[in-house]
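Field reference: sequence -> structure
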Amino acid sequence: MVVEATRKEDGEKFAVKIVEKNVIKDDIKLLKREIDIMKKVDHPNILKLFEIFEDEQHVYIVMELYAYHSN
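Structure field:
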């Protein structure tokens, strides 16, 4: 699941990917690989990774928010 989040200090918006650990328990290596790749990549067409948080049940991946506007 991906949700929009707002930083209270300055109102900046982010996308937060929330991953349930019990759902991906067998694929945790894939998630770690995705995170490692995102940390290394810096390209204007790829969402930027800012932060990773974790609790007992979830991994929270804070990324650049992409706002699609159709014309």
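Note: The radius of gyration is 13 Å.
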